[in-house]
Write a structure and sequence with these properties.
The chain is α/β, with parallel strands linked by helices. The chain folds into 2 domains: 3-74, no CATH class; 79-282, Rossmann fold, CATH 3.40.50.720. It is built from 11 helices and 11 strands. The protein has helices at residues 3-13, 30-40, 44-53, 70-77, 88-100, 133-144, 159-166, 182-192, 218-222, 231-235, 239-257, and strands spanning 15-18, 24-28, 56-58, 80-84, 104-108, 149-153, 171-174, 196-202, 205-211, 267-272, 277-282. The strands form 2 sheets. Strands 6-5-4-7-8-9-10-11 form an 8-stranded mixed sheet, sandwiched between helices. Strand 8 and strand 9 (205-211) form a beta hairpin. The protein is globular, with a radius of gyration of 19 Å.
């Protein structure tokens, strides 16, 4: 099936409609995308990319626009994010990335859900206790947006594993807990020459930062070999803080993948949700 064949099929299946702001547009429904993918024998993502190239908006992304242009939405569909950790931060990040239409998400986690995850982890539920987080993540991604390719790695990653997961990715996303494994992820992103979006929670305090290739990471200033309990273990992980951190990280990831400059390069956003006080701190 040639690109011209896909283009013709997409244009035929599209329908006229209006954006939420009342502007006129051409749209392709979720059902039409799935049907065309089956008929044409190609990934649903390629159907959506062809639609966007023809100024046709897949209906599932209609409310992304005007926040993103059609061209930026197409960039998202062609992008790859490597997500390390599929627990509290990772589950929220995955939800945001697949809904935004990031075309390929690689996710790694070797843990299984337990009852202590139920207070905050989006992918956890009573029926999932004992289920590998990577397995549950794959199920959720497919249910939310089958046009996104989610590649699950059910295992913990060492330094070499992180390098492999990041190979060919456009951005690395740190959803790890504690500090022990984060320096290896910082090093892997630096080696691959890609941005790293990192986040952490300690009680109602949230920190989010973007580390551009070769730049200093806040992890390197905080890490001390990983000895002792982490701040999140001492101060807790309430759901509002975890969801906030994941949403802020997702904003930076999507911004980068859409081709926009990051808002937090070389600095960290510190947010206290108890007082609703925010500061931005530069690091170098």
């Amino acid at each position: 099936m040639t690109p011209a064949d896909i283009d013709r099929a997409v244009r035929t299946a599209a329908t006229d409609g209006t954006y939420p702001d009342g502007g006129a547009g051409r749209f392709l429904s979720v059902a039409a995308v799935a049907a065309l993918a089956r008929e044409l024998g190609c990934p649903a993502r390629e159907v959506e990319r062809a639609a966007l190239a023809a100024a046709i908006c897949p209906l599932r992304y209609a409310r992304n626009l005007r926040a993103f242009s059609l061209e930026e939405q197409a960039r998202l569909l062609g992008a790859t994010a490597a997500l390390i950790g599929l627990g509290g931060l990772g589950g929220g990040l995955l939800e945001n990335l697949v809904r935004a239409g990031v075309g390929t998400v690689r996710g790694a986690d070797g843990d299984v859900f337990d009852e202590t995850n139920l207070n905050r982890q989006l992918l956890s539920e009573i029926a999932a206790v004992g289920v590998p987080k990577a397995v549950q993540a794959a199920k959720r991604a497919a249910a939310v947006n089958p046009s996104v390719t989610f590649i699950a790695h059910n295992g913990f990653l060492d330094a070499d594993g992180m390098l492999a997961l990041l190979d060919g990715a456009d951005v690395a996303v740190d959803a790890l807990g504690g500090l022990k494994d984060r320096p290896a992820l910082v090093a892997a992103a630096r080696t691959r020459g890609i941005p790293l979006v990192t986040g952490a929670v300690a009680g109602y305090t949230v920190i989010v930062a973007t580390v551009m290739p070769g730049a200093c990471s806040p992890v390197e200033m905080l890490a001390s070999g990983g000895a002792g309990p982490s701040a999140e273990e001492v101060l807790g992980c309430p759901s509002p803080a975890v969801m906030t951190a994941a949403a802020l990280q997702a904003c930076e990831v999507v911004r980068l993948l859409a081709g926009r400059p990051p808002a937090l390069a070389g600095k960290a956003l510190l947010l206290d949700l108890e007082t609703m006080h925010a500061d931005t701190v530069a690091f170098s």
